[in-house]
Design goal:
alpha+beta, Arc Repressor Mutant, subunit A, Herpes Virus-1, 3 domains, three-stranded antiparallel beta sheet, zinc-finger, Nse1_RING_C4HC3-type
Length: 231
């Protein structure tokens, strides 16, 4: 089957998404509508995913893809443009110095090995003078954390850092293959879960928004896997 044609509406949508890097679902839907109106292309309010499928069929030869993912804090859909040709860590290598990359990797370790999917700024800053590549002053490390947040690799809340939604969408495969013993998928939505709750009996994990949604209808919350009480 021939891929549907890319129109100027598709091109405009892609350009705006590229400049943002990531976009919340409601914003993406508004943009989709706007692009169709400007370029007089047929618009159907429930066809955003088809519209994106068309874009993706044309991005395939370029090893790029628009991917959908969920925010771990509120469960909202987001769309991000992902580069499939190089792993995200290699792509980061063109933007950051070696010791900056090392600090990011170590921060990622802290976040992924933590119980709740967060690492405190204190713990991260303590790593700065233990770097193998080149030690970093605390001030430099503080500045770098700000840059990681601006560049949407990390999110920060009250001095606690976690992986940004864009980072999770982009790095899901990398994380699942490099942290095989600890990285888990959410039992409900089947995407990578960093901020999550774990069943104390069988060890499955669920995102917090997925937990809320799943247990909304149940009087007594029980694990979807082993049926034990969910604390």
């Amino acid at each position: 089957a021939m891929a549907a044609q890319m129109t100027d509406a598709h091109r405009r949508f892609l350009q705006v998404l590229m400049s943002h890097g990531i976009m919340e679902g409601s914003v993406a839907r508004k943009l989709y509508r706007r692009c169709c109106e400007i370029h007089k292309v047929y618009y159907a309010h429930d066809k955003l995913d088809d519209f994106i499928t068309t874009i993706n069929s044309h991005l395939q030869p370029l090893f790029m893809q628009v991917r959908k993912g969920l925010s771990e804090s509120d469960g909202r859909a987001h769309y991000a443009l992902v580069n499939l040709a190089e792993t995200e860590i290699t792509r980061m290598a063109s933007d950051y110095a070696e010791n900056e990359l090392e600090l990011f990797r170590k921060t990622m370790d802290l976040i992924i090995f933590s119980e709740n999917g967060f690492a405190s700024s204190t713990d991260i800053l303590n790593l700065a003078d233990q770097l193998q590549t080149k030690k970093m002053k605390k001030k430099e490390a503080e500045q770098l954390l700000k840059v990681f947040v601006e560049d949407k690799w990390l999110s920060e809340r009250d001095g606690e850092y976690t992986l940004h939604t864009r980072c999770i969408i982009e790095m899901e495969q990398y994380i699942l293959s490099n942290y095989q013993d600890v990285a888990r998928k959410c039992n409900i939505c089947h995407s990578l879960a960093i901020q999550s709750q774990m069943c104390e009996s069988c060890g499955i994990v669920m995102h917090l928004p997925c937990v809320r949604k799943y247990f909304r209808a149940q009087t007594e919350p029980r694990c979807p896997q082993c049926n034990d009480c969910w604390p």
